[in-house]
Amino acid sequence: MPRDPNQHGTSRSGTTRRQFIQTTAVATAGFWVANSLAAEESKAANEQINFACVGIGGKGSSDTSGAAAHGKIVGICDVDTQRLDGAANRYKDAESFTDFREMLDKLGDKIDAVTVSTPDHSHAPAALKAMKMGKHCFCQKPLTHTIWEAREMGKVAEAKGLATQMGNQGTSHDGLREAAAVLKAGTLGKVSEVHVWTNRPVWPQGGDKPAATEPPAHLKWDMWLAGAKEREFGKGYHPFSWRGFWDFGTGALGDMACHTMNMPFMGLDLLNPTSVQAESSGHNGYSYPKWSVITFEFPKNSTRDALTVYWYDGGKRPPSELFDGKQPASSGCLIIGEKGKIYSPDDYSARWEFLGGGLEKPKVEYPKSPGHVEEWVRAIRGGEPAMSNFPNYASPLTETILLGNLAVWATGEDGKSKKIEWDSQSLKAKDMPELDKIVKPQYREGWEA
């Protein structure tokens, strides 16, 4: 039988349910759980923070500039030398690298904090190496490529007492925090269903392995692969469509659920689902399917009754009758309670409204954020932890979300999976050892996380 999540001591990332509730209770109680070890070892308010940035193209460009606004960039790393040369012109005091291992080893004590903004498969190898060296860490969403890595990131961050944050920026929005506080206040009554959908993928997905070809001269292909198994370069891997390949990305679910499922996760304590099941267009084991619908079952816990979460991507949507005559947005979430519904037509849940009539917005308390990056910098300087810190928030959120990809993988070519009974204590799918390779990666030698 699946374990009762209310009866365990320590769960994801070493986080107890009590710790999780305390951390996310900022949405109603207005307090933060301070990390005393991090505070003791953090940079003083008047000291300069030295940042090293892994991945400086795409989202990495804004992550690097965000760090630069609060300190000095001393190292930049990217496997694309065109991007690296461009960043070097902007950050003239930074030393340039194409291998994050070399950068961390060489700069060592010059670095206080690291940003990681790479393809999903290299998040954990870069972030874990940095954190094991005692560096504070910001990592883009989804936190990791696999469930095991998500838990490991939380464990290491907690053990080292580090200031950490995942790049799901909606966590710092007033709208999301207010909606989560409304849920915690019980305004909807008993919640039975959550529906979350996205307009992704917006990249090619569901195809065959790309034909082998020579990589562009400006791409260090072996460095790009990092811990993934060796293969020849193919068009579509770099710079964007890697998201659609099992070995590199996490598909539509991994790309967007850390945003679109974030508000119900915070407001409804969506830890430790006991089962997950999926249907999809079918896949070949190399590329994610063109579409998927995933069902998560969450048992009753100390804060809410049992409920079901449905995820939709690739053009799939919840039944139209659930929206009370409203035309649903291309991405969003819908939370159904016995007294009404909360609908957000927004990837970040920054905007939301009641459906169903009769409900008025209650006055709830929630902490105001100084800004997403500012939360992380404040934590580095010894202040309150960022809301989306690894041990108590980002790691558990990522674990919950990536569990859906186990079910998607199990759909295979026929597009249907059996129900996966999940034991979050041991990170095991009951009687399905073939899923172990999706739970925990096997790294190439020299790239171990």
Characterise the protein shown here.
The protein has about 450 residues and is α/β, with parallel strands linked by helices. Helices cover about 30% and strands about 15% of the residues. The strands form two sheets. Strands 13-12-11-7-10-9-8-14-15 form a nine-stranded mixed β-sheet. The longest helix has 22 residues. The radius of gyration is 21 Å and the shape is globular.
- Number of contiguous helices: 14
Strand order of the largest sheet: 13-12-11-7-10-9-8-14-15
The portion of residues assigned to helices is: 25-40%
- In terms of structural class, how would the helical and strand content be classed? alpha/beta
What general form does the structure show? Answer: globular
Number of strands: 15
What attributes does this structure have?
single chain, alpha/beta, nine-stranded mixed sheet, six-stranded parallel sheet, 14 helices, globular, disordered N terminus
Quick overview:
By secondary structure, the protein is an alpha/beta fold. It has helices spanning 17-24, 36-41, 59-68, 81-90, 100-107, 123-132, 147-160, 174-184, 221-225, 251-260, 262-268, 372-380, 390-411, 436-439, and strands spanning 50-54, 72-77, 95-97, 113-116, 136-139, 164-166, 191-197, 275-280, 292-298, 307-313, 332-337, 341-344, 353-355, 420-423, 428-429. Helix content is 30%, strand content 16%.
